[in-house]
Each structure stands twice: as structure tokens, then as C-alpha cells.
Design goal:
- The protein is mostly helical.
- The chain has a domain of about 150 residues: Alpha Horseshoe (Serine Threonine Protein Phosphatase 5, Tetratricopeptide repeat), CATH 1.25.40.10.
- Helices cover about 75% and strands about 0% of the residues.
- Helix 13 runs antiparallel to helix 14.
- The protein is elongated, with a radius of gyration of 40 Å.
- The N and C termini lie far apart (about 120 Å).
Length: about 575
């Protein structure tokens, strides 16, 4: 029976593929599918069904899909040939009557499961109703029946992109392997690989696309950005230069090229591009600000560039006077050339214009901390925490300022808040350890140091401070010595670390060795009163009472309120 319908059915497929009119439903359409039981069909019934089928096909070709459906439905009264189910499915699909289309396409597939075109229509109904898993199953079956079906492979790959990207890539690569490079397929391969962070594979696909369209500037730009992700800066540089030759006024491209030069540590070339951008009529505020930040980053390597960086930000300030973003940069840069009054002015303006800016508060407070004006730092940070209550840096600087001012209880409160906000910050944990130690809260101090060492067992500052705390209590001296050695290995000229190691040796009764390290601590830095007193103690233990008295007196000059030290000097002994 099917052989006699094949030619008409094929014509119907061509009409379906070519037709783009949605048509209008002008007659009542029955959507109930007939039962599919086998029955004998007379020649007369076949002939009637054939004529109705031809009539429906002609109406379908004119875009009269509703009228065509009526003919196809009448044809089913005489014959249940799957070609009629298929024709009905196509017409319902054109009318966007997806449930009916799906029902008839399913019947067609049930009758002839190996007909690819039947499964294609069924898959399309599933796509239109969002049943992508079912659509994917149909396309997989189509590929079993017809492994070289490119449309099925491409559509299945599109469906799989989000849920099964690896499968989608395999399908796309299979299409390229069978048919050679294709722009649409290569584009999907590039995009998928990029999304999967397989930038090398994305670059390969883009390179093949460029062979197909060598003059495509957008493609070259995309490829250049991919090279940057791969850190293939020379290739990116070449590609961007080619694009800029054709589009010299593109500020964004020139900015990207400048970034490439910066990645290559080629500041002269980067600066040349940045200067060109600054002179452009197309310069926008964000690009101008990024240029300023590029100059700022270079000042860390070469302080001679600070005036140039200031000039870039000052020009920004002139062009956009209501924008507060340059203020912090200008403050830091002016501090770099020791113009603290100007720096303070910028930091203050930043905190007034944008009191939510934690960087501005931090920089303003740190400037006073550097000058050892701890009470002013405390005042600024207490104001800052009202506006940025969740910035751990504010509470860290407040805590260490209280510590330096000898207000250890206040320091503890601030540092505990900082630790709540950032429990893994080593500076906070180290400062907490010191503060707890000053409050004689040794269990809490040890806990803070242990937490820090679990995060970084090699952190020299914590190793030193923890070792010193243990040595002052005369406990775990072997462990303290091991930790102190490790901190010295990281920084052998640090005065504090040298004193700690020497003091541990002193506590172990190794006075000659202790003297060597504590004396070196004094030689390497501006020794504190504690270090000077330690040196005096070490000299006394080796029998040099004159030197002991000399360094005790020097210690007293730095800590005139130290009653125990005064008594030591008065009696001339420990």
C-alpha cells in the first residue's frame, strides 16, 4: 500500500518545507485521531482516500491548512495510511496546533518507525511544546537511521548545548569531520568551548572561521580576546594591530591592545596607546578611569611615574567634577610624593562625598596610623564604622590602633568584630593573639595563633609572635624555638624576629648565644624599649654589668614609666 503513496507524500514534504504561510483556520477541524487497528481497504476506498489526499495537498500548497486538514480527515475515513497522518501533522504544525500535530506525527511514526521525515515532524512538535528530552530522543533515532543527517545532528546539538555540552560538541565536531568547516557549526563549537573554559579549542574554531572569512573584523577581535585568555599575548597583539589598522578610532580595541602591552610588561608601547586614547574625542569616563588605574599600577614599579598618573586623574577630575572615584587614587599618589596635606584633603573629600567607600576611610585612617597618631586613627575609624559597618578592615585598623594606644580591652572588642567579618584573615588573628596576650588571656591568645597556623603554617609574623608569647611564659620552649627559627628563615634581618629567637635562647639558659641574636636585633633596627632591656639582661647574664646598665638606661629613655626597669637599674642587677 505504501508504494502507491510515496510520490504524493514526497510532494507533500516539499510543500511543507517550502511553505512559510501560517494560514487561517476557516472551517471546523476535528482533532480526534482515529483508531489505528488494521482493516481491509477496498480499491474504491483507496481511490477515494487518494483523491481527498491530493485535494488536501493542493490546499496545503496554497497555505489553506485548515481546509487541507478537512480533506485529510475525510481521507482517513477510507484509509489509515501513515502518509495521511504525516500530512495532518504538518498542517496542524503550520497552524500551531501542537498537541494535534504531535498526536498525528506519533501515529505516523508508529506505523512506519523508520521514516526519517515522520520523526523530524514529531521532533519539531516536541520542540515547539518545550519537550526537549523527547525531541532529543527522536533526533538520536533519526541519526541511527541516517547517520549522515546533518540537520538532525545540528538540531540535536543545539538542544544539548545547555544540559550536555560535551555531547553537543561531539555532534558539532562530527559535522565538521563529515562535511568540512562550516561557519555556523564552527561558531557553535567556539562558543561552547569558550563557555567550558576550553579556550584553546575555541581559538582553533575561530581560526578556522577566519580562514573562511579573512576580512571579518569582529571575528578577529573575538579571536584576539581568546588569545588573551590563553595568555598568548603576541598573537593577540598581532590580531588587534590588524583590526586597528582598519578601525583606528575604536577606543575599546586600542584599550585592549594597551592591556596586552601591559601584560607583556611593555610600558612604553602601552603608554603610547593610552596617550592616543586620552586624546580621542570618543573617550568615555570609564575608559579614562581605567587609564588612570593603569598609570597608578605602574607607579608601584616606578615612582617616577607618579606625577604622570596624577596628571591623568586630575584631568579626569576636571572633566567630571562630580565623580568621586579618582579621589582615593589621587590621595594615595600624593602620599607617594610626600604631600600628605593634599592626600588628606582627597581622602577626606572621598569620605564626605561617598561615605560608603571603605577604601577612602581605610586610607585616611592609615595615614594617621603611619604617623603614629593612634588616637586620631581611632577617632576616624569609629566614625567610619557607622557608614561601613561590614568592612573588616575598619575594625582591624581600629583594633591595632587601640592596641598601640595601650587600650587592650577596646582593641579586643574591635578585633573580635573584625574576626567575625573575616574569620580567616591572618592579620586579624595575629593582632587578636597579641591583644589577648596583653590581657593575659593566654588560652584565647594561643587559640587565635593556632587558628592562624592552621590556615598558613609558614606565616612568619604569627610564628614569631606565638613563639615570643610562649617564651615569655617559659613554656613549650622547644616548640617556640622551632617556630622562631622558621620566622627567621623567612626574614633573617627582622629586628623583632631576632630578638624573639635570642630571648628564647636566654630563657633556655644559652646566654652567650642569646646575646649574639639580641645584639643583632638592636643593630638591624630602631630597637624598642623591650629589646634594649633584653640586651641589658643578656649582658648581665654573661657578666658584663657595665653594658647591662648602659642598655637598661637606654630602655628607660624609651619607656620612662617602667617601674620594674627603674628598680633594676637602681639595684644594678636583675
Amino acid at each position: 500500500m505504501m508504494k502507491r503513496w510515496t510520490a504524493v507524500c514526497a510532494a507533500g514534504i516539499m510543500i511543507f518545507v517550502a511553505g512559510c504561510s501560517s494560514g487561517s483556520e476557516t472551517a471546523a477541524v476535528k482533532t480526534e485521531a482515529p483508531k489505528t487497528r488494521e482493516r481491509a481497504v477496498s480499491e474504491q476506498d483507496r481511490s477515494a482516500a487518494m483523491q481527498l489526499f491530493i485535494d488536501g495537498s493542493l490546499k496545503e500548497s496554497k497555505g489553506e491548512f485548515a481546509e487541507a486538514i478537512l480533506d485529510y480527515q475525510d481521507a482517513l475515513r477510507f484509509d489509515h495510511d501513515p502518509a495521511i497522518f504525516f500530512a495532518l501533522a504538518k498542517s496542524y504544525l503550520q497552524l500551531r496546533r501542537y498537541p494535534a500535530a504531535s498526536e498525528y506525527a506519533s501515529l505516523a511514526v508508529q506505523h512506519e518507525p523508520n521514516r526519517v521525515e515522520y520523526r523530524e515532524v514529531l521532533a519539531q512538535t516536541y520542540i515547539n511544546t518545550g519537550k526537549l528530552d523527547k525531541a532529543a530522543a527522536e533526533f538520536r533515532m533519526i541519526l541511527i537511521l541516517d547517520p549522515k543527517n546533518t540537520n538532525a545532528a545540528f538540531t540535536l546539538a543545539k538542544i544539548m548545548e545547555r544540559s550536555h555540552p560535551a555531547e553537543a560538541l561531539e555532534l558539532y565536531n562530527g559535522i565538521v569531520a563529515r562535511q568540512g568547516p562550516s561557519w555556523d557549526v564552527l561558531l557553535q563549537i567556539a562558543q561552547l568551548n569558550s563557555a567550558l573554559q576550553r579556550h584553546d579549542k575555541a581559538a582553533e574554531a575561530l581560526e578556522q572561521m577566519l580562514l573562511l572569512d579573512p576580512s571579518n573584523l569582529a571575528l578577529k577581535q573575538n579571536l584576539a580576546e581568546t588569545y588573551i585568555r590563553l595568555k598568548q599575548f603576541e598573537k593577540a597583539r598581532t590580531m588587534l594591530t590588524e583590526v586597528l589598522e582598519q578601525n583606528p578610532d575604536n577606543v575599546m580595541l586600542r584599550s585592549t591592545l594597551a592591556d596586552v602591552f601591559l601584560q607583556q610588561n611593555d610600558w612604553p608601547s602601552a603608554r603610547k596607546e593610552l596617550t592616543t586614547i586620552l586624546a580621542s574625542d570618543s573617550l568615555d569616563p570609564d575608559t579614562h578611569l581605567r587609564i588612570g588605574m593603569a598609570y597608578y599600577a605602574q607607579t608601584i614599579k616606578d615612582t617616577l611615574l607618579i606625577p604622570d598618573a596624577i596628571a591623568v586623574f586630575r584631568q579626569y577630575e576636571k572633566n567630571y567634577p562630580t565623580d568621586t572615584r579618582p579621589f582615593v587614587f589621587l590621595g594615595v599618589l600624593h602620599r607617594g610624593i610626600h604631600k600628605d596635606s593634599i592626600a588628606e584633603s582627597y581622602f577626606t573629600r572621598a569620605t564626605q562625598a561617598a561615605n560608603w567607600n571603605g577604601d577612602a576611610w581605610w586610607q585616611l585612617g592609615w595615614m594617621y596610623f603611619d604617623k603614629q597618631d593612634f588616637m586620631e586613627t581611632i577617632s576616624i575609624m569609629n566614625k567610619a564604622k557607622q557608614y561601613v559597618p561590614d568592612d573588616f578592615r575598619i575594625f582591624l585598623l581600629l583594633g591595632i590602633s587601640y592596641n598601640r594606644a595601650g587600650l587592650h580591652q577596646d582593641s579586643r572588642v574591635a578585633l573580635e568584630r573584625a574576626a567575625d567579618l573575616n574569620p580567616t584573615d591572618l592579620n586579624i588573628l595575629s593582632s587578636l593573639g597579641l591583644t589577648y596576650d596583653a590581657l593575659k588571656m593566654h588560652a584565647e591568645s594561643d587559640s587565635a595563633y593556632e587558628r592562624a597556623l592552621r590556615i598558613d603554617p609558614t606565616y612568619a609574623l604569627v610564628l614569631n609572635n606565638y613563639a615570643y608569647s610562649l617564651s615569655e611564659r617559659g613554656i613549650q620552649l622547644e616548640r617556640a624555638e622551632t617556630m622562631s627559627k622558621a620566622s627567621l628563615a623567612a626574614d633573617s634581618t627582622n629586628s623583632s624576629y631576632l630578638d624573639t629567637y635570642g630571648w628564647i635562647l636566654y630563657q633556655k639558659g644559652k646566654y652567650q648565644e642569646a646575646l649574639i641574636y639580641i645584639r643583632r636585633a638592636v643593630e638591624f633596627g630602631d630597637a624598642s624599649a623591650v629589646v634594649l632591656e633584653h640586651l641589658g639582661d643578656a649582658y648581665y647574664k654573661v657578666g658584663n654589668e657595665e653594658k647591662a646598665a648602659e642598655y637598661w638606661k637606654k630602655a628607660l629613655e624609651k619607656d620612662a614609666k617602667n617601674a620594674a626597669l627603674k628598680a633594676k637599674i637602681a639595684r644594678g642587677s636583675l
